Amino acid sequence: MSPKLLSPLFPWLILLALASLYFFSSITITLPHSPSSPTSQSQSLAISRSPSCNLFRGNWVLHPHHKPLYDETCPFHRNAWNCLRNKRENMSLINSWKWVPKTCDLRRIDPYQFLGLMRNKNVGFVGDSLNENFLVSFLCILRVADEGAKKWKKKGAWRGTYFPKFNVTVAYHRAVLLSKYEPIQSEAGDQAGLKGYRVDVDVPADDWARITSFYDVLVFNTGHWWNHDKFPKETPLVFYQAGRPIVPPLEILDGLKVVLGNMISFIQNEVPAKTLKFWRLQSPRHFYGGDWNQNGSCLFNKPLEEFELDSWFETRNNGVNKEARQLNHLIEEAIQGTDIRLLDLNHLSEFRADAHPAIWLGRQDAVQIWGQDCMHWCLPGVPDTWVDILSALIHKYYRER
Ligand SMILES: *[C@@H]1O[C@H](CO)[C@@H](O)[C@H](O)[C@H]1NC(C)=O
Ligand SMILES: *[C@@H]1O[C@H](CO)[C@@H](O)[C@H](O)[C@H]1NC(C)=O
Ligand SMILES: *[C@@H]1O[C@H](CO)[C@@H](O)[C@H](O)[C@H]1NC(C)=O
């Protein structure tokens, strides 16, 4: 074909090709790939061939034709994060940024291929609402490949989904501190005078302690509850070991260290060795001009620049968002020498001050009561990239075995 002939026809050919791919996607097992994205086969090859491949370091690049795999109609949304439904401004711009690692290729997850790989297997998330945010993105993406996906809430799961075509369950177990905790009963007698919450540093929460053998892949996190907003001086965390209060009482971050040590030993001793285990680092918050309860806001219309990140997050600058890096150090230290893999989703997320629900929370009075949400993420949005990375690592693991 001559270039002259090609040019007027070309857009129509693409449209036709996309339309037929869309049509056939429901009956074949391949995902419609956009013209610019090769198959995921080459994705995993690209990853395993490059020894220095690091999916966690890179830049966000504007790709105006990048489109999410799901929308506001996904039945697994949580209202406050369903930014399309809540009419958050600039959602298409938020979703036009693509994470491009410096040293390797990151392809978008292919939900058909992923569920095929995971046939008869299960993926579990354990931790706080940032892991739930991750889960919701995952469920909405995987549902593309199995519209019969059904809500699943067994074995103590907070929520989850069963994908019948592939016999795969993906679920979230809420355990914000990972260890067991409960309000202190003041009439407990010998512990008179103690108030707040009892944390048993050596006892994993019931929500996940006995279900780990059900899962082939587990993703842990904790961190957002380890602060004095959640547990102020009047009702602090009081740490117990072997059933008795630790004396002298531990400060909250020292308590976290002890809990991390104990939970990680539990995981090493009790979770089957064949289970692929990840620990995800903190998800950074982006409160600007004050903390969440001081009118802090995140009305940004583009990602931060790399040179801005330290001023926002570096611990010694003592900014309102400093705790993510602070906790990350503790977590990295704690999982060293174990078979738990680090999922460093922190750095790539630090850029995305523009991608939180902010004031679009789906409820008139929400901002007045809780302030802006500059902590969780809009969906579709940044967690979709977390899913791309997690699925690439899972693929790599199963292919190399
Ligand atoms: C579904 O997967 C589970 C493991 O999660 C397995 O025990 C069960 O046999 C599978 N069912 C079918 C019908 O293959
Ligand atoms: C937050 O904004 C409201 C309304 O503008 C104001 O009344 C209040 O004092 C502000 N709070 C803080 C902590 O700055
Ligand atoms: C949306 O994008 C426009 C154009 O870039 C910008 O002027 C506006 O401030 C953005 N809104 C938000 C909430 O970021």
Give the N-to-C terminal Cα separation. 46 Å
CATH class: Alpha Beta
CATH homologous superfamily grouping: SGNH hydrolase
Helix content: 25-40%
- Named CATH topology: Rossmann fold
Tell me the series of helices and strands, N- to C-terminal.
HHEHEHEHEEEEEHEEEHEHHEHHH
The helix count comes to 12
Ligand names? 2-acetamido-2-deoxy-beta-D-glucopyranose
Q: Describe the biggest sheet?
A: 7 strands, mixed
Per CATH, the architecture is: 3-Layer(aba) Sandwich
Assess the beta-strand content as a share of residues: 15-25%
Mean pLDDT: 88
Summarize it.
The chain is α/β, with parallel strands linked by helices. It has one domain (62-400): Rossmann fold (3-Layer(aba) Sandwich).
Describe this structure in words.
The protein is of the alpha/beta class and 401 residues long. It has a single domain, classed as 3-Layer(aba) Sandwich (Rossmann fold). It is 32% helix and 15% strand. The strands form 3 sheets. A 7-stranded mixed beta sheet has the order 4-5-6-3-9-12-13, with helices on both faces. A hairpin with a 2-residue loop joins β10 and β11. α5 crosses α12 and α7 packs parallel to α9. The longest helix has 23 residues. It binds 2-acetamido-2-deoxy-beta-D-glucopyranose (NAG) (3 copies). One 2-acetamido-2-deoxy-beta-D-glucopyranose binds next to loops.
